[in-house]
Amino acid sequence: MSISGGASSTSSAAITDCDELGIVVAEEAEHVRERIFWGSDSAYKRQIYKAAIAGDWSKALRYNITDPSRLCSVLTKQGDTALHIAVSMEQTSFVENLIDHMSLEDMQIRKVDGNTAFSMASISGNLQIAKLLLHKNPGLVWIKGHKNMLPIELACWANQPLMVNYLFENTRLDYLNRHLSIEEDIVRMFFLALNTSNYSVASSLLDMYSELARAENNDGLTTLEVIAKLPSEGDGAGYRDIVRMVFEHMEGEEFECARISEAMFDAAKLGNDMILEFMFGYNANLLMEVNSKGQSLLHIAILNRRVTTYQLILSKGAYTNAILQFLDFKGNNILHCAGKLAAPERFGTPCHSLLLSEERWFQEVASIVPGAFKSMKNVKGRTLEEIFYKKHKELHERAMSEQNETANNFMIIVTLVTTLAITAALTIRTNPVQGPTPIFKETTWYIIFLLSIVVITTLLVFSMLFFTSVIHSPRKQKMFDQVNARHRKIAIGCLFLFLSIITITFTALCAGILIFSFFPKWIFIFIMALASVPLVFSCKIYDFVTPISLLVHKNDLF
User: Fold this and answer.
1) For residue 52, is pLDDT > 90?
2) What residues does 222 pair with on adjacent strands?
């Protein structure tokens, strides 16, 4: 004891001296804090800590017999008790036994980060443990944890929808009014539920508190603006319900037109057509609104390549004719917008496919604008085609490089298949076959084999010619004509390559019959059936028909 005490005194003196000199010895200070924390109780704290991790209740109970307060004491510098540790390790049986020996106050102990054991159960989504804790102490649901958030908010933040629904179902309305304030807690919970796509809870809160339809989040955004920025959930019932309820509460209320208009443009940018449908039903004149850049809703849909939003706007009859005449503050009509490069988030598809898609967009928009607009220049004096080619020049170069790489890769495959076909032709036996051959005579099989080799070679030569023409194609064509033609050549080359692979499979069967004619007929039938399986799968995987159909229907936007 004297030695330990001396060491402690020496360390304390050293730290004091360092402080006087203005020096902070971080490591020594940390060691002193640890010794002070653990003290003489370090042995039992470590044992309870290990028992909680392992879920060994019998071991932990021995310390409860000697001193009942030990199971509820803080075990770590982070403020963990045995209950915190058992909950984090999901030791359900240990938790069930432990809470029988704890008071309600002990269950409410918070860690350094502010979380109770119940908050940790909410974050982890462990319903079984949460039910045990809540049954013993219903007040846990109102104790705020990390960042001053309620357990239900923490569950929302951790994306635990089942836990959120359970906590909300066990929270009575009178308790909400008693424990929470509409100005802070409920508004925060409502927007958190929206942002985590928990629309059932958000709908229930909106049903209880209609003023939430006009509430603003910490960023100053209204409910409508937040929903408009969320990704569309299609026909999801919960999503549709929350949108419907917001607009029902808007009826008869005075909302700022500018804020509704801003939400509408956000929805159009993200392709959130459900919001737009409700907005047009709420006020059809919103179709004629323009944003701060003078762009109409159709400008935004085309700039962001939102096909369904584009179709929705065009379906609005007389409004469409007026929108087509709109120019933004830079003198750009909707065809100028189609000539600009797509939004960055669309990049991820192959460059040549994206470039062809851009061309189809341009052609589609050109088909609906008045004739005079097609030759119109903007305030910078740029025509539609000038904007188009300038904005897509880099994409065109990347598409060309991508197509060259694709053609080179296929050239390697063609070379390998050609080598295989020639090798097969030179190594087949020519001496008479012993015994009858299945289906056809021996001479017939030799003829079929020779013809199939000729067909394979012809197909491979054609395939090689098409791939070579892609690599060495002249650059005299227009941007899209060039990419389109190269894409067509690659597709046809792939088709010839695929046909040659089918033929070489049949050729291999012919060679097998000539070499192993003494085998029963069913063996060759089985081999042929088995060989057709990878051919079918390769056709499905590589989808050789799609590239050709894409080019044939190149005016199809969708």
Assistant:
1) yes
2) 216
SS3 (DSSP) at 108: coil
- In angstroms, the CA 184 to CA 217 distance is 10
The pLDDT assigned to 247 comes to 87
What is the rounded distance in angstroms from the CA atom of residue 360 to the CA atom of residue 173? 55
* 518 against 231, higher pLDDT: 231
Distance CA 514, CA 346 (A): 55
Task: Give me the amino acid identity at 87.
Answer: V
Q: Which of 23-32, 244-253, 392-401 has the lowest mean pLDDT?
A: 23-32
Show which of 171, 188, 211 is a domain's final residue. 171
Other CB atoms within 10 Å distance of the CB of residue 126:
20
Domain count, the chain: 2
Give the per-residue pLDDT at 253.
62
What tokens were used for 483? 């990419």
Residue 115 domain flag: yes
Rounded Cα gap, residues 141 and 118, in angstroms: 8
Q: What is the CATH number of the domain that holds 65?
A: 1.25.40.20
Q: What length does the chain have? A: 558
pLDDT in tens, 331-375: 888 988 888 876 555 555 667 677 777 878 888 888 888 877 777
**According to the model, what pLDDT value does residue 182 have?**
56
The count of other CB atoms within 10 Å of the CB of residue 395 is 19
Contacts with 552 (C-beta within 8 Å, 6 or more apart), sequence order:
none
- The verdict on residue 226 lying in a domain is no
The predicted-structure confidence for 430-449, as pLDDT tens digits, reads as follows 555 555 565 667 677 778 88
What residues make up the domain containing 51? 20-171
Task: Give the three-state DSSP class for 104.
Answer: helix
Residue 376's identity, in one-letter code, is: M
Per the DSSP assignment, residues forming a β-bridge with 216 are 222
With 0-12 CB in 10 A as exposed, 13-18 as middle and 19+ as buried, what is 21? exposed
CB 190 within 8 A of CB 202: yes
What local confidence, expressed as pLDDT, does residue 180 receive?
62
Whole-angstrom distance, CA of residue 514 vs CA of residue 504: 15
Considering 171, 195, 217, which residue would you say is the last residue of a domain? 171
Find out whether 298 and 324 touch, Cβ atoms under 8 Å.
yes
Relative orientation angle of helices 92-99 and 127-136, to the nearest 10 degrees: 0
Token pair of 198 as six digits = 């928990």
Q: What is the dihedral of CA 426, 427, 431, 437, to 10 degrees?
A: -110
